[in-house]
Amino acid sequence: MKFHPQPAPGRATPWAFPAPEREALPNGLTVLRCHRPGQQVVAVEVHLDAPLDAEPEGLDGVATIMARAFTEGTDKLSAEEFTAELERCGATLDSHADHPGVRLSLEVPASRLAKALGLLADALRAPAFPDDEVERLVANRLDEIPHELANPARRAAMALSAELFPAGSRMSRPRQGTQETVERIDAAAVRAFYEAHVRPATATVVVVGDFTGVDLDQALAGTLGAWTGSAAEPRPVPPVVGDDTGRVVIVDRPGAVQTQLLIGRTGPDRHDRVWPAQVLGTYCLGGTLTSRLDRVLREEKGYTYGVRAFGQVLRSAPDGTGAAMLAISGSVDTPNTGPALEDLWTVLRTLAAEGLTEAERDAAVQNLVGVAPLKFETAAAVAGTLADQVEQHLPDDFQARLYERLADTGTVEATAAVVSAFPADRLVTVLVGDAAQIEEPVRALGIGEVTVIPA
Length: 455
Prior knowledge:
By secondary structure, the protein is α+β, with helices and mostly antiparallel strands. The chain contains 17 helices and 12 strands. Strand 4 and strand 5 form a beta hairpin. The longest helix is centred in the first third of the chain and has 20 residues, at 131-150.
């Protein structure tokens, strides 16, 4: 019997984040397309330059209501008919508003892409914004607010924003509005916000999926390409300013068995050269179950089920300026709130004194870079990241270069970045918990002036 040698394995092809093709349609709409063979569910992301800081004074939340109302009918279809047509396409359409603007997210089988793009275009071109549907959306939003206030994590986020940013800044107030501002919103306010800020000249659409057998040019030309509107108008983008003087705010929850922690400040965003090192160092501090914070607070002391450190981009301007929220979050049992904070600060001070280890850095690079091919398996994940880059005014190859820069970042750089991001003496700490039990132990730590917000 003759045996044949096994073929030698070929050289591994390095993974790279997909590169989109960019173009502008005659109506001014920017299009990013990315052909992904095998992705039969196409993902579409639309970014509208309708940021929260553009909301009229006293109408916080109108961007959110407008975003939700895009699916409530058009000049051709009622809300029920529009939903039925989406279902016939096998499509889903979601939308939300945040500081950078409004996003609409569509997923649809490639075979029905043209039809679904037509529905999306109608929603953007001629939304009905009927009075009764807007009233219903406002009522729904008002119903959500008490639940958010009762949620410790959400309440902590609201308190941190209110404490960190100036009172007149939109950043200081809840993204989706308060009861007082949402109650003022009606269909006329939604239409006025739409007319002022929604137009193809300032919008970008990202399309990702398998375009085999799909004439995407024709599909776009007959749908989103037929959307018309006025030219872009320059609009100043207010700078993000935060006061990170070390201090503590306790939001009193009498009888709470746990304390919700949210510790933060503003710092560099993705435009800054330090971002890759900051991502790497922050991951070592609190990005995984084996991070420093978890090793001490969860494994050694048993105070918590987990504590996370992260950087979240707030808003970027076209000139490359912007800011990110750098934060540590988690919850601990009430009696151990003081000891847990003491240990957390010890972790930060030890990190500043001794630095990260080579092993920590290597594990972080392996986890962050090595998981990328799995993280971006779906068209929706790729489209969402490309749309993030658009709204943050980043180049189309930012994500691809980020992985290269992460791999090239050394331990010393990562240490310097994370120590700069989380200085022990310049952090705003919000605690949602039982003030009667936690106030004195927290004051004794000396991590900043303590203020209690009554229940």
